[in-house]
């Protein structure tokens, strides 16, 4: 098992609080997969989504997958020039939401590298809460040189 410290993985993505959706990287294998976690504390993201019935927005679940994918690219050194670059989402396919996610739950994100072509990298992502699948998606990131 390969653990990555927060101050290390923050070198690979530009996101910071309050839009950082990765708290820890608990395992990874370069150019293969990455497993991360994020604790979903009650904060401003829940205040309006929805009043009196707060849930974690599905787009933020996808965002946590994409941030985790950006970290996987960075630690894999897929291309030296990709380090500290900006990643842009270009495609989401087959995104499926299976279960509602509530405040104070912990998301476990599993990202798998599928393939790459030039500056486009394709991933498969899964999000779990307490070992229950809550979301899955295939997505492509573009890395601007």
Structure explained in plain terms:
With 145 residues, the protein is an alpha+beta fold. The protein has one domain (6-143): Roll (Thiol Ester Dehydrase, Chain A), CATH 3.10.129.10. Helix content is 19%, strand content 40%. It has helices at residues 6-9, 44-47, 58-76, and strands at residues 24-29, 33-39, 87-97, 106-117, 120-129, 132-143. It has a six-stranded antiparallel beta sheet with strand order 1-2-4-5-6-3, covered by helices on one side. A hairpin with a 3-residue loop joins strand 1 and strand 2 (33-39). The longest helix is centred in the middle third of the chain and has 19 residues, at 58-76. It starts with 5 loop residues before the first helix and ends with a strand. 30% of the residues are buried.
